[in-house]
Amino acid sequence: MRVARFFTITAAFAMLCACSNSSIAPNALLASTAVQAAGPATTPGGLLFVSDALRQQVRIYDGASHSLWGKIPFVPFPSGLAVDAARDLYVARFGGVTVYPQPYQHASLQLSMPGQRALAVAVAPNGTVAAIDAHDIFVYAAGSQQPCVEYAPPNYGRLTSVAFDSKSDLFFTGYDTSRNVAISNMRGQCANVVSTQLSIGNTLHSANGIAIGPNDSLSVLDTSARTIFTYRAPSGNSLGNPIAATLLQRQTVRTPVAFTFDATGKSVYTADSALGQVDAFAFPKGGAPTDTLTTGGQPVGVAIVPPYLPKAL
């Protein structure tokens, strides 16, 4: 896909301007460039968003140059990230989920989870949003700030990640009360409080990320195995055996804790919290990274603009 650049799809964005503490703060070089710019700047490679738990901020990188494009500062306990079809950014953090529209300078919406730390967030094609803390799933109707459903899945001791498929059905991962990895799905709609646990044909040792890929396939990051396992869309209550195992080369990856697809679904990007880097891998081939961006800090979430959008079967 590429060797020295993160993305291949063109996207245009307005250049960041000088901002207050409640908005994105561009670095000094970007601020200088913005002053000199006669019109909107472009980022030919797209944007890469990284939530940094150490710096308590979301850092934004130009996909083509790897330079720091801007940052959202003062984000308490940032975790998972998501991008919707309108390219709005959703940031899971302490207290709920904050939404930032382009050019990501100011928040437009705060999805409430008072006193809770949001660990992951996902946006459905129909605009429904789901966020999780360690034990509960919060579902929000499109445009709503208050959850219409707060659901604690039975037999789960801890939740780890969420994703929507092309039909706006919700999938989530976690650990059951016996500390085994569990994957379930449910209708992502208000008033629904029923989920179904799915059987799998292999053993997962951890599940720290989930994403829906081509043909509504379901991919799960096993951090312990440093492998992304991919399954076909469930048949009945079963995912069956994985149809692909994307091994992340151990010599260059230590603790991948989150991942996302690129816009084509042919590459994945992982956040390595131990090494302070984001790595790109061919999907489903895996192996050695095709690119690495050193971010420093502690990356715990990653998202891309333009995003991958699940396609209907």
Would you write up a description of this structure?
This protein has one helix at 28-36, and strands at residues 11-12, 42-43, 47-52, 57-62, 68-72, 81-83, 89-100, 109-117, 120-123, 129-132, 137-140, 149-151, 156-164, 169-176, 181-187, 195-200, 210-212, 218-222, 227-231, 238-240, 244-247, 256-261, 267-272, 277-282, 291-294, 299-305. The protein has 313 residues and is mostly beta strands. It has one domain (11-305): Neuraminidase (6 Propeller). A 5-stranded mixed β-sheet has the order 13-14-15-16-20, with no helix packed on it. The protein is globular, with a radius of gyration of 18 Å. The two termini are 25 Å apart. The model is unreliable at 1-44 (pLDDT under 50).
What does the radius of gyration come to? 18 Å
Distance between the termini: 25 Å
| Unreliable sequence segments | 1-44
Number of helices: 1
Shape assignment: globular
Q: Which CATH top level class fits?
A: Mainly Beta
The percentage of residues in β strands lies in 35-45%
The domain count comes to 1
Q: In CATH, what is the homologous superfamily?
A: TolB, C-terminal domain
Main sheet summary: 5 strands, mixed
The tally of beta strands, per DSSP, is 26
**Could you please say which CATH topology applies here?**
Neuraminidase
Helix fraction bin: under 10%
CATH-level-2 architecture: 6 Propeller
Q: Average pLDDT across residues?
A: 87
Along the chain, the helix and strand elements come as EHEEEEEEEEEEEEEEEEEEEEEEEEE
| Structural class based on helices, strands and sheet pairing | mainly beta
Strand order of the largest sheet: 13-14-15-16-20
